[in-house]
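User: My instructor asked us to take a sequence, write out its structure as tokens, and then describe one feature of it. I'm not sure where to start. Here is the sequence I was given:
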Amino acid sequence: MESDEFRKRGHGIVEWIARYYETVEQYPVKSRLAPGSVKNALPETAPAESESFDLFLRDFDEIIMPGITHWQSPNFFAYFPANSSPPSVLAEMLTSALGAQCMIWETSPAAAELEERMMEWLRDMTGLSPEFEGVIQDSASSATLVALITAREKVTQYRSNMEGLSGMGRMRVYASRQAHSSVEKGAGVSGIGRDNLVRIEVNDDYSIDTAALRKAMDTDISAGYIPCCVVATLGTTGTTAVDSLRAVGEICREKNIWLHVDGAMGGTALLLPEMRWMADGMEYVDSIVFNPHKWMFTNFDCSAYFVRDAAALIHTFEILPEYLKTRTRGMVNDYRDWGIPLGRRFRALKLWAVIRTYGVERLQAMIREHIRLAGMLAGLIEAEKNFFLMAPVPLTTVCFRYKPEGISEEDANRLNEQITHTLNDGGRIYLTHTKIDGIYILRMVTSQTNVSEKHVLQAWEMIKECASALSSKYGAVDIY
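Assistant: Let's start with the prediction itself. The structure tokens for your sequence are:
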């Protein structure tokens, strides 16, 4: 593709993106395609000769777009936000154009130094101690794996990387039974073993039960196990429960155990001074991760990982073949030593664009509004007969359940599942569910970039109408 055509196509794609953002509400939020539809629409073999870019754009519209679930729709209330924004998209275009490989300072000094400064900005914006140093990882799952491996190395005096885990003793990792699945995956990938992840019971608000945590550790120590790491959570995936960092941290400090905090979703709320109650006890924390690519309007991937002892992190992951030796080693941050991959994208550029374009105060206002919308929805649910809040609402995830009088728990489960599928198949909104102790619970997340009170109220009316219409099938009559 020559420069003239590239320029023409580039302008056209920017126009398409702008139009998409303006009209995204017109698409069914959840794709309606059956499994295999996209693959079956594609040729079985690659083209032998070049094709017109017009054909690519045609097939993008006709084949790909029907198979897209629209995470950028303000009617997307499912899972968790994966927010983007115009400044982030434009910066991502520049990142793609540069094509920089940002593995060490030498390969792109600006990328390394911008990343260092952006992590300092984020650290200060969220009220973290200056002792923390940060690096951008691709995801919270990777960051948690990095934390587990670093904790493993510390407890084995940095021997397990060289010698393997044989003879190192059987290590244990602890997290609540509401913690994210990435903790279990990380325990497996790190070699600690998924069977050595100890799931701790939770309190009534679904936060970790610290008395049960202490008891589990003491039992393990007596049995010859080696406690290695505790993963606390600021905003669990299912219910956005917030673990007490102080209570957990005191146990970890007493027993000299690494404390990692998974704040993938909830950590962004630390931009708000009034939400920093979640960070009480942060002085005990060894590492923490949160995702600007979830709730800080920076498109995937951009996960901020902070560590108190950067030397421990580097000692865990550094390796220096001859072809990577430079004259600047030790004078700069070579971020390939701060995580698993050698290759690294220039992720800091889009974060810089977002923070500068919105400013801290505007970011705070947007996050604050999303929390307000969740509180408003929770109030509407509590005021409605036959709808019940199923968990506290500290952030933007509202867990609730519809149960008319006279139906069993089993029928209520089936009814709530049918409500979910009926609404999602309709295409106007998208929400998901969780299960706690066998109870099927609806989840609605009010933190998509452009969600407004109008969207939340419209969704709530649709939920009520759907619930009322379906309830008669279960021998119940509900008039809201």
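For the description part of your assignment, you could build on this observation: The chain has a mean pLDDT of 94. Try explaining in your own words what that tells you about the chain.
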